[in-house]
Amino acid sequence: MTSDAQPNSDAPSTGRAARLSNWVRKKDPSFFAYFLAKVIPAVLSFITVTYTIRFISHADYGEWGFLGVVSGMLVPVVSLSLPQAMMRMYFDKKDERVETHASLVTTTFLVNTAGMLVVFVIACLLYFAESQAALGLLYFGGITTGKIGFSFFNYLSRVRNDYGLYLFNRVVESLLYTAFVATFVSYVADADRSTEVLGHSRLHWLAYASIGTVWLINAVNALYYSRQGLLSIKAKLLSKVELREMLAFSTPLIGTFFIGWLLASSDVWVLRRVGSLTATADYLFAVKIAGGVALVTESSLLDWPRFYYGHMRDNHADRDEQIARRVRSFLYMHIGAILLVRFIAAFAYDVLGAEQFVAGLEYLRYLVLGNFFFLLGNLMAAGIGYAKRTHLTLVTFLVPGAMNLGLNFLLIPRWGAHAAALTTLAAYLLYAILSFFMGRPFYRFQGGSRLIAVIAVALGAALLPLGLGA
Predict the structure, then answer these.
(1) In the listed set 218, 238, 258, which residue is the last one of a domain according to the structure?
(2) Which of 3, 25, 279, 438 has its CA 20 to 30 A from that of 465?
(3) How far apart are CA 339 and CA 149, in angstroms?
């Protein structure tokens, strides 16, 4: 007797490949997309830097990096940090109609646009006030304004969980910029790096490449969200009450981001002012190599607000366990990145042809460990943001930021970039400690003993003489 029974298509798959497939399906695809959105540009940035150091001089590399540090401070300040408020308020909207969200998105976009115009006007005034300020006009009037828009669209794609668009933005921006710089190098392959190209400074050519790239991506995003109905001239703007609520959330963040800039980047500013351009270049190149660790930090924090706010809102029975597990996975990935960076750092300098920057290997370990504590502090402060007590973040950033700035002025003139790396590590450690204690009243993370164990492993991975390259 034959059976007509068919195989059960719903039966669990077996085998190694099937188990891997099942594991991937259970994971949140957005994290993988956000991780790739950091990995791919990071890889491309290392390719770009090999062309950049062949295109501009050692000192010019320091000047270009210094401008990037200043620009990074301006973006959250000029935008009034409203994109961050938009991300938080988006989850308060119970009405899921496009028109409801369009009001929030369009209002935020218009405020960002006003900020971009202010920066552009100031850059023009500075240019006309000093004839040698052409690079400043290009960087702040073109690149910084573009980055303000780019930051807005990246926040919007994250809050909407349009991780495909976010991946597109990051990858295409990096690809285009890399292609531009590679073209410049091929055009002047054998020329002296101090000479002009077609009557323009080499730094000006880098600015042209960056401006064209970022504004093209902004145009694509504006078109996409206009077609989605989220950016519309017909959208009703937020009421004064709603706008005041957003500003109440975002205004403390403006100070927080500025103080955070003191925490993260005042070392570069002080080093540039009291040191040499070449010492600044060495330090910035070490920061670039340490960016392999920052890659994990940034990838983790990209999806962390959506993950945390969503779990707090839904309040599942296993909410706290899932949050604690996500935190530990972030930190262990970071430790793996620390070991990897220490192992390949010296090799990376050789491959990139960056022997003139090799002084940065001496303090690389402090940079990667500092990044670990920065990630830990951001995770521990999650409850502050959910409780809308963002004014407390001023304290968590102000104290270590002020300490970092003071130590930088005190120590960098004597010990240079080595001191800059150590003071940054000390400031990030203090930031993590303050974030932990100030965030506890609003949310207590499970597994305190496990967290201590993770920190101990991180200290060993970063500081023990493992016979690695850094």
Answers:
(1) 238
(2) 279
(3) 35
